[in-house]
User: What shape does this take?
Amino acid sequence: MLDSPRDERVVQGVISFSGWVLFDGSPADRIEAHIGGEPPVVLRRGVPRPDVVRSSGAGHPAAIGAGFSGSVPVQDRWRGTTLEVVVRAVAEGGDVWTSPLVHVQVRDRVGPVDEVDELTLDVLWRGEEPAGRVPGDRPRVCVFTHSLNLGGGELYLQELLLRLHREHPVELLVVSPQDGPLKAELRRAGISVHITTHHPVDPSRYLGRVSELMMVLRAWGADVVLVNTLGEFAPVDAALEADVPVVWAIHESFELDAFSDLLWGERGLHPEVDRRWRRALASANTVFEAEATLRMFADEVPGLRGRIIHYGVDVAEIARYRREHDRDRLRADLGFEPQHTVLLCMGVFQERKSQLALVLAFARLAVLFPDARLVLVGDQSTNYAAAVREAVDGLGLADQVHVIPIQRDTYRWYHAADVLVSASDLESLPRSVLEAMAFGLPTMAADVFGLSEVIHDGVNGWLCRASSGNALTVGLRRALECSPGERQQLSRACLDASTAHDSAHYPAEYFQLMTSALATHRARRAARG
Amino acid sequence: MSESASTEHEPTADDPPQGLHEGDAALDDALRQRDDASRAAAELQTRVQALVVQLDHQRSVAANAARERDDYGMRLIDAEHRAAVIPDQSRVDELAAELAEVRQRLSDLEAELRFTHGTLSWRVTAPLRSLRTRVSGRNSG
Assistant: This one.
């Protein structure tokens, strides 16, 4: 059943797909959108459809993951045309379902509306730098992040800030629109934290917010601005307007139109705000963690000043943890027996992380590998997480699949596990993979963006094709079938490779990037007089 | 030899100064260097394009092998499921033979994939990527 796009739909930024497919009660192996004569685009599978479960009765518990979704950014060559679109699903055994043909009209981009002429950025404060400061003594870094919760992007920043604060002469102020458990940790370390509201994106309030942020930067005397994640572009805009050098860490591997659709809906940003977002991307010093992601952005943003900084985890601390904690006792405490093979999936429950697809794949193997245990850490109170729990119960997997809430202390799970699993269909380079490597855990991962930069199939883990139920199932089987001796070999390769991802390096690289950006900026200002 | 044919004569106000001659020579040299560099860049670009085509071909070979591996993997899982619940002892041998055949094909495909992955690994393709960066940098610069 194809819910979207409907026939004769008019689109501008993206073509949104959604629907569901079941083959004899089982979700499809692979689902593709065929748009005009273009190469097919793989859609996300394993999307929760509780409505399908209800309509199919209790007979098909796997129906909970029958849904599919996807956003395909509109190509410029499609504008002004009507496209023929179908969705094609392939079953595990090779059967094919094709949706009815629908026509999608792609309209031209809407030009700036009249209102844009009235949009002006007001500079609210023209004061001098705060008195008594010696510029260059300890650079003041004003940090903007999207949240202080326990997510990969947040922990990336946390590690960076704590190390910058400890090891480099900087003053830090962290500004976040979303509070979370990381705030207390930052404050305990002596880092100032300010909680504010989300940055609006409607044009007049957006520009008002940029003016306010400029005022904050000037009043605090920020020398450099550090921004975390792609959606936080208002502070980047403010830094550029306030003539403060800015470094922007981008973890997301989305095409810009798809990201805009996800965050701001199908209508996207107002053209003027969108223009400022893209200008910010081209003007800031952008930092990426995977070469594949940098390449994707370089293709989309002309003049991108991007670079790679390989981030890392605290390898020494993890080694200490492994030495100080008895693994056998820990496994027993967590309810695992010696013969169990523990597969760990670490990450906040969300569609792009594909925990539901993982449960469905594991269900195919549970009988064949009765000693296999799947631990999903990252449960939260969302509809998606509820669907994952429902699938575990409905498929009778409660003995073999453990669902664990989000938590700060994740080391014990890594230490107790045998293999890490990453089923994500969209991921730059997950922190969990680097942590797992430092624990000597091989990873079985869907091969997206930066994963193949750190995982070498058969050497320190396994890679499988993304967005395919068959590939995920076979990948899990390969990991489960691995003998203890082979796994030990992979584990050694992980430990060897993990030293290259030690967090001792990346704060120094950030510090160097920020201070050199500051030095260049000051030299330019001096030359201008 | 008449005087007018002589190559040496007193400098006049209309003669270009010596510095200008040297400047012309330097300019010629610079233009030659620029042409040489353009030719080298074009050759490099052609090589990169050829390598990209080769790489794309290797990628599609790897993708096909992976798909085939996964199909066999699913056949194996299916056969294992049937073997796990088989009530009829007489079919055990038949299934065991099927399992052995699928396992062998799977193992061949995995070896093939390991080889292809090796040729596509980031370490192996690093020179190509750096070449591409250099060429695109040159073009944009």
Remarks:
- Confidence is low (pLDDT under 50) at residues 1-6, 135-141 of chain B.
